[in-house]
Structures are given as structure tokens and as C-alpha cells.
Amino acid sequence: MVLISAQEISIRAVTEKDAELLLRNPLSYANTYNLHLPNNWPYHNLSAHLPLYHDLLQKERHNEGYGPWIISAEGNIVGDISIQSPPNKKGEIWIGYYICPGERLKGFATKAIKQLCNWALSQHKIKTIYAECIHTNKPSIHALRRAGFVWYDCYQDIEIYKLREDEK
């Protein structure tokens, strides 16, 4: 299990056992780590990603960390952040994140992005990290920029940002 705590928040990599708990009974997961569970959690993106990640870990346990992480602060689950898949041959990954509605604009996204990217870049396989968001989501754009990402490209209404190991 990988747990990173700094700057008032913790991010915890979802293990195979955690994924099983989250798929069966999210409250059991929260109780295991003494965390308060927000209403209607896990949200759509995490719920969609969990079965795929669980299957990946069953086949290749060394991929732990290359999937969802749970963001918590002061005993509350405040969101999730994910590495979408293991790195490709160029050492590239994509991340995504979601902060619970009542926890937004408190700096949790920026802190979680920094923590996850520091961990990812320490894995020696990863050279570039990408993230995307809708161009109208100014808080998300600011979180990426504060975490060191720079604008890279756009596609329709989606902006793509990147963070390179040598630019960190």
C-alpha cells in the first residue's frame, strides 16, 4: 500500500483489497481507514474505473499505484485522483481527478496533483504526465498550473496540460 501524507492531505493508492471493498461496500472501505464517507461516493469516474483497475491488479500486482488514489483530509474523503494506466513505452501517463462538491476551492486538487506527480516521477519509468480539462473549468486549470503543469494542446473544448520530469 502506498500512502503519501503532506500539506494537510493524504493520498492512498487503492490496493486490490481496497478495490474489492469499494466495489462491494464503500462504507467498509471508509471504516477500514477511519474516514468519513461523502454522500453518493464513489462518484461516476471512480466507479467506472474500479472494475478495470481491480482486474489489472489481479493479473499484475506490480501495477499498484497506476490507478485510483483516494484523497483525504482531516478524516474525510475529499476526492480521488487517478493515473489512468501504467506508463507507455515513452514513459507517459495521464492523470484525472475529482474533488467532492463541498470540498472544492480549498486547494485539495493542487496538493493531490503535486503529491501524485512527485510519486509518479520517482518511479523512474515516467517522464511526462498529461492531464486534460474542459476549457471553462478555470479552477481545474489553476490547480494544474499551480502544480507545475504547462499548456500543451487543445482539442475542441478540452485543454491538455503536461508536466515533464525535466521541467519539474
TrEMBL record:
Pfam families: Acetyltransf_3. Keywords: Transferase. One of its GO terms (molecular function) is acyltransferase activity, transferring groups other than amino-acyl groups. Residues 9-167 form the N-acetyltransferase domain. Transmembrane segments: none annotated. It comes from the Bacteria. The keyword Transferase applies. PANTHER family: ACETYLTRANSFERASE, GNAT FAMILY, PUTATIVE (AFU_ORTHOLOGUE AFUA_3G00765)-RELATED-RELATED. This is Protein N-acetyltransferase, RimJ/RimL family. The lineage of its organism: Bacteria, Bacillati, Bacillota, Bacilli, Bacillales.
